[in-house]
């Protein structure tokens, strides 16, 4: 495959999780080609090389400010030469709820900034938030950042990132989603290990600024592991019982595994239990999968936002266990603003009855207001175009020297190709792969490129 020619601007896009973020990168590459620009895909593997070549890029797009500190030495961040743009991979739900402004600030600006270490945030040229809620909180609390705040909408809901549904309504299945990342960790860490590691230290804060006295305690999912284990155990039980009931009622079931779970574990479990369901492949984008469902059922999740925005009604399993609410902390997704408008039946039989009339369930007006404020729905259909406009605005003046950049660009790409090839050779001998661990081989790049072209409108 011939290397792309250097064009007017060179942009680096970090794909943190392949199954989630690759479609956004693919669509943005297509968008920037209209401007005659070149977009290069990156990930955690290529970031090791980026630290030596960041200056060749006009802009580097990362998911959050703290990624700069993970890639570069903290003291050197102010001297970085590229423009840094934050395009968030998650920016809805509790972390976008202005009822909890400290959580919004920490979610958008990260722990280091909230504790007084500002190098990463001060280096950012543009924050691309999904909705007005987050942008307003940041601008109100830190007015000096307001001119760098942009609302672009949910990028994975750009019209070019949404697959066209080719499934007839009669062939659609009942979709179930999982969210059991502690019990079934994609890094193959045992629940016991996760539990011990969380409580072996006395840290109880999302952040604590000793100088200002400002702090925020852990009250989110993932921070309170003991409670999470109970919730996940109850939800797994009800998932299995619901699958059995749906199958016995004559329904076809499709199961979508959370990207931070071990996919192979579910394959083994369902086969051993002889549960005849479809398990969607890990590389199938959520938007493509959900459009093949009559409804989506699962524990409270930001996936409910995605489902509603695609016209598929979600049903929550949170009402199936009366003791469950005792383990819900203040900043769990069960308490996000959208959940006030999601049906949560108190029995499996009621869920099955609800499935029968799933096609008649409509998006409540109140829920649409939440989607607008947090994800810029429905204007997010042009999200990636808005990201392109932000890049164009911050890159209106260029100081690069094309000949020198071209030379080092080819050194960078050759290095990535070589290291990716070597990595792919040893990959079969590694214990597991996941959405965050992949090599940027030419075949992977080609697969990402095809995502947008397959949806091209």
Short description:
By secondary structure, the chain is an alpha/beta fold.
Description:
With 457 residues, the chain is an alpha/beta fold. It contains 16 helices and 13 strands. Helix 1 crosses helix 16 (442-455), helix 4 crosses helix 6 and helix 8 (225-248) packs across helix 12 (348-356). The longest helix is centred in the C-terminal third of the chain and has 25 residues, at 402-426.
Compile the SSE list and pairings:
Blueprint: E1 10-14, H1 18-33, E2 38-42, H2 47-53, E3 59-62, H3 66-71, E4 83-87, H4 101-114, H5 119-123, E5 124-129, H6 132-141, E6 149-151, E7 173-177, H7 191-199, E8 205-208, E9 215-217, H8 225-248, E10 253-256, H9 263-272, E11 278-279, H10 286-290, E12 293-298, H11 303-309, E13 314-316, H12 348-356, H13 365-375, H14 383-394, H15 402-426, H16 442-455
Helix pairs in contact: 1-14, 1-16, 4-6, 8-12
- Give the total of beta strands: 13
Q: Any idea what the CATH architecture of the largest domain is?
A: 3-Layer(aba) Sandwich
CATH topology term of the largest domain: Rossmann fold
**Strand content range:** 5-15%
Q: Characterize the overall form.
A: globular
What is the CATH C level class of the largest domain, in words?
Answer: Alpha Beta
Give the total of domains.
2
Q: Segments where pLDDT lies below 50 for 5+ residues?
A: 1-6
The side-by-side strand order for the widest beta sheet comes to 2-1-3-4-5-6
Mean pLDDT: 91
Summing up helix and strand content along with how strands pair, one would put the structural category as: alpha/beta
Q: Over the alpha carbons, how many angstroms does the gyration radius reach?
A: 22 Å
Count of DSSP H/I helices: 16
Helix content: 40-55%
Task: Spell the H/E element sequence.
Answer: EHEHEHEHHEHEEHEEHEHEHEHEHHHHH
Q: First CA to last CA: what distance?
A: 26 Å
The biggest beta sheet reads: 6 strands, parallel
